[in-house]
């Protein structure tokens, strides 16, 4: 489910797995390669210094066009909550630093993933990320199917 709130978006998805497994799939670079791009097999590399203040880089290719997301981990509360910044390296894709917050909530039969992405400079940037995150969450859920 996706809910637009001004210059942010909020999505939820219940994953049929325990919270620690869901957390690991979200944060482990090898598992991130399998889901963190809207295009199937679009992730080219994932680099992560997974600690508060550490950075990540996610290089992908969508329809032949390179996209490189990067950011800094602001909060790591395993296995409940993760907060990190998000922007793009390529000229013409940069939007300024935005913030992604992901919460992992135990639910009967699985884990609810609550994703909030905030601080978009324009509705068009938010809308593009809405579609991208929906596809990524489909890929993420498929890891557990």
Beginning-to-end CA distance, first to last residue:
18 Å
Number of helices: 3
CATH architecture: 2-Layer Sandwich
CATH topology: Alpha-D-Glucose-1,6-Bisphosphate, Chain A, domain 4
Cα Rg: 14 Å
Mean pLDDT over the full residue set: 94
CATH superfamily: START domain
The total strand number stands at: 8
Beta percentage is over 45%
Question: How would you characterize this protein structure?
Answer:
The longest helix is centred in the last third of the chain and has 20 residues. 19% of the residues are buried. An eight-stranded antiparallel beta sheet has the order 1-2-8-7-6-5-4-3. The protein is 23% helix and 46% strand. The chain has one domain: Alpha-D-Glucose-1,6-Bisphosphate, Chain A, domain 4, CATH 3.30.530.20. With 145 residues, it is an alpha+beta fold. The N terminus is likely disordered. It is globular, with a radius of gyration of 14 Å.
């Amino acid at each position: 489910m996706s809910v637009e709130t001004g210059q942010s978006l909020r999505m939820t998805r219940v994953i049929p797995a325990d919270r620690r497994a869901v957390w690991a799939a979200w944060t482990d670079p090898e598992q991130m390669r399998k889901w963190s791009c809207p295009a199937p097999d679009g992730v080219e590399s994932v680099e992560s210094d997974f600690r508060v203040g550490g950075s990540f880089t996610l290089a992908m290719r969508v329809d032949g066009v390179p996209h490189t997301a990067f950011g800094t981990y602001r909060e790591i509360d395993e296995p409940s909550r993760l907060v990190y910044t998000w922007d793009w390296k390529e000229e013409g894709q940069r939007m300024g630093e935005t913030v992604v917050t992901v919460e992992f909530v135990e639910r009967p039969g699985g884990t609810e993933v609550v994703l909030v992405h905030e601080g978009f400079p324009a509705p068009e940037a938010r809308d593009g990320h809405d579609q991208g995150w929906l596809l990524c969450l489909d890929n993420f859920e498929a890891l557990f199917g």
